[in-house]
Structures are given as structure tokens and as C-alpha cells.
Amino acid sequence: MVLGRHLFYALLLLGSGALESFAKTNPIITKGNAFFDSVTGERFYLRGVDYQPGGSSSLIDPLASSACHKDVEIFKKMGVNTVRVYQVDNAADHDDCMKAFEDAGIYVILDLNTFRHSISRSDPAISYNKVYLQHIFSTVDAFKDYDNVLGFFSGNEVVNDHETTAITWVKATTRDVKAYIKKHASRQIPVGYSAADIAENRLELAHYFNCGDESERADFYAFNMYEWCGHSSMSVSGYFDRLREFSDYSIPLFLSEFGCNTVEILEDQTPDRPFTEIEAIYSPEMTESFSGGLVYEYSAEPNNYGLVIIDGNGDRKISKNCVTLMKQFQKVPNPKGDGGYRKDGLPSECPRNSTYFQAWETLPPMPKEAKVYMEEGAGEPLGIDGPTNMWSPYHSGDDGQYTAPKHPKTKPYPINSTNNSKVNQGDEEEEEEESSSSRIAFTVVHLGLVLAASMLIKF
User: Fold this and answer.
1) How buried is 88 (Cβ within 10 angstroms: 0-12 exposed, 13-18 middle, 19+ buried)?
2) Can you state the percent helix, strand and coil of the chain, rounding each to 5?
3) Which of 45, 339, 354, 384 is buried most, with the most CB atoms less than 10 Å from its CB?
4) In the predicted model, what is the mean pLDDT of residues 169-188?
5) Burial tier of 167 (Cβ tally within 10 Å: 0-12, 13-18, 19+)
6) What ranges does the record list as Acidic residues composition bias (predicted)?
């Protein structure tokens, strides 16, 4: 993947006049189904890239590395105003990079989870524990004072097929993070979810995050969507269908990943990505419901989506696709005025359970062991290498220490249950009481799991 120098020089020449200096990054707020600059009142559209050199599971925190200064210069030339970072070390120092981003007018939207701290698809109730909440609250603490933090993701593609039950605990996490921010931060930083684009439950998941009490609803919702490939159109790509489906959605929507690479392959074996969807994404038709998006992805990884090649010495080389994206950003302005946003939409109705959607309207209560963090703060950040929350009957956590209760409460009431009002009262005595029948049930399940292990069934 050796690229000619002319691409690099082309970027420099175009970039020298491509982007005027940004003003200071004022905090971004949500209003209706759109984002706005809290000071100027102008509508804000994400024009960004997904930024995690080394891949989304990389152990390198890009916001704690001096190399971020090289990337900021490229972002400025590209016309980027937002980056998404999938994983950070909450014990690291981020002041230098966050200041560089702020000076360049670039916002950060940050995933709170790491590969060691997330809601488990297979054991969501067990993974929702004090270790997990301490970690994500500590990450909030590490970033809450930066004005250019646009928002936090409480989860990314936790649902990636027809099994959706884990999403109940992701929504509980969303609720908890919102409450923690309200109590411990100087501003209410938006919290949302980044969803895989699964056709069978796309609408149910989106409406689930926008239903119920305001304290539980997401502040925004995003899709990882790759339906526009090459020189496509609004109708062929399905964009028109998404607009129709979300014509009444009341919170901000955006594309948290986009940019199909199933296109013509160049001689150097890289995809020729025309990024013609840019014109559609920032058109008046789209901006009635969507607020821009983030191109996947900044750095070249084995998946062939990368815009910039980072060699072993840390030098950056610009690809043809990067130049194409920059030209598209230059060519397509944001709509004038407010882009047709809706300021007074209503929350969604909670979707009923169905073949491809199973979740609970009444969320599980915060683990009582974690409530001290809500009251007193998360305390010292333990970093990406801190204790994991991924407990299971076959894994007792780091250093033999259990990271979750052995007897988790795993059964909130289903959607449309007649018992919702009672559960929402949060009776502490009932929460802590463990009946003999539940202990027996857990023992039976536990013995069954041990038996399965002894039979060499796959863990």
C-alpha cells in the first residue's frame, strides 16, 4: 500500500486553504432532534471520522499520545469537526491532546466501554456490577471538564443479531451515566447508544432507547450503517427508508460509522471510495432527521477502511480516499438555518416484545454496591488494566477476585408489565431480599453449568 507523494502534496495544497481556523469549541447541547452550539445557537452537524489507531480494540489511547498532534493537523485539513474514540485509559493524562483538539475546533465523542469493561451479551446481568460502573464513572470523571466532549456512548453494537436481551442493561447503564453526570459534572453531557444496523430490530432498538421516563431515555441515538456503496442514491441505499422510519423520532440521530468499502479496488489493492453519500447526508432531506456522521475509519487497518496509513515510525501517509473525502466535505456545505429540525417531538412508545426483540421496560436497579459511587464519586481511576467486570461461573476475575456478585438479580419485569409502577418505587427491602426459591433456582442453574463444563461443552 505504497502511495505516491503527489497525494500527500495534494492534501497539503488543498488543505492550506481548505479550512479556516475554528472558533473555540463551545459545549454542544441537544434540543429537539438536533445538536446545537450552546453559545452561538447554531445547529451542529457531525463531520467526522472514527479515530482509534490500531483498531477499535487497540490498547493505545489516542487521546493520551503525543502523536495526536500529527493527527490534528490532518483533521484540520480534512475539514473534520468531530472524532469518535472507542477506547481510552481513564487513568491517563488527556490534557495535551484535548487542548490540541479544542484549539482546532474538534469535538470528541467517546465510548465509555473497553474490551475489559462492557455489558456482556451472554451474561448481561452479571456484567452489570460495581466494577463496571466504577470504571465508566471514572471515565466520565476523566473527561467531564473538557468543553469539547460532545457526548458519551454507553454501548456499541451490544446487539449485533436477533438476540437483544442484553440491551436492557445497556439502557440501565445509560440511565446511570446520565444520573452520574447530573450529580458530578458542571454540565449535562449527552449520553447515547451506537447501534449495529440490524434490519429485524432496527426500529425496536431505536424506540426502546427513546421511551420511558426522561431520566432513562438516551439523549441521542446513532447507527453504524454501510448501505450506501459507491455511486449510489437515496433510494438504492435505503436512506429514504431510514428517513421515513424516523420521521417522528424526537432525539438527535447520526451515523456513528459509515463509508462502504465494497467498491472498485485500485491497483494497490485499496478500495476506491467515492464518498458520494456526503452530499446526501448533509442535504435538507436528511438533516430533518439526521445530524451528520462519522466516516469509518481514520487509520488503515487490515479491514481496508483506513484513510491514513501509519507506518512503524509513526509517520502519516494520506490515501487517495482521504483526499476524496476532504474534497467532498469542501464541496458540500451544511444546510442554512436550522436544517428543518423538529423541536417538539414526543418520546417513543416502548416497543412490545416480538420474535426479534426481547427487552424490559422496567430497568434493573443499580447494584447496591455501586451506589456509593453515585453519592461520593467514582474515586481513583483504575485504568484500562484495572479489574475486569467480566465475571462468569468459569472465570473469577483478575487475581482470583470475584468482580460481580455470585447471585445476581437477573429478572426485571417485561415490557408492558402491569407491575411497572411497583418496581419503579424501588423498594429497598425487596431489592435486597433473596427468597429461598430464587436461591434454589440459582443453584440448579449453577449445577447445570458445572455439569456442562464437565462435559466439555463450549464455554
Assistant:
1) buried
2) 35, 15, 50
3) 45
4) 98
5) buried
6) 426-435
Residue with cell 466494577: 131
Cα angle for residues 193, 198, 199 (degrees, 5° grid): 125
User: pTM, whole model, 2 decimals?
Assistant: 0.84
Q: What's 36-101 look like in SS3?
A: EECCCCCEECEEEEECCCCCCCCCCCHHHCCCHHHHHHHHHHHCCCEEEECCCCCCCCCHHHHHHH
Strands 290-295 and 46-50, sheet pairing = parallel
Cell numbers representing residue 244 in the block: 421515513
Query: Whose CA is closest to 149, among 195, 194, 186, 199?
Result: 186
Amino acid type, 157: E
| Grid cell for residue 269 | 489493492
Whose CA is closest to 194, among 281, 148, 254?
A: 254
pLDDT digits (tens, 9 = 90+) for 266-276: 877 789 999 99
Sign of the dihedral through C-alpha 80, 154, 156, 359: negative
Q: Is the pLDDT of residue 215 over 50?
A: yes
Provide mean pLDDT across the span 343-358. 95
**pLDDT surpasses 70 at 135:** yes
User: Could you list the active site residues?
Assistant: 157, 257
Strand order in the sheet with 28-31: 28-31, 34-37, 43-44
- Identify whether the C-beta of residue 21 lies closer than 8 Å to the C-beta of residue 105: yes
Phi, psi of 132 (to 5 degrees): -65, -50
Q: How far apart are CA 62 and CA 237, in angstroms?
A: 33
DSSP summary character for residue 214: T
| pLDDT tens-digit series, residues 400-443 | 344 444 333 444 445 543 333 333 333 333 343 433 333 334 33
Going by their DSSP bridges, the two strands 191-196 and 149-156 should be labelled as parallel
CA distance 152 to 138: 13
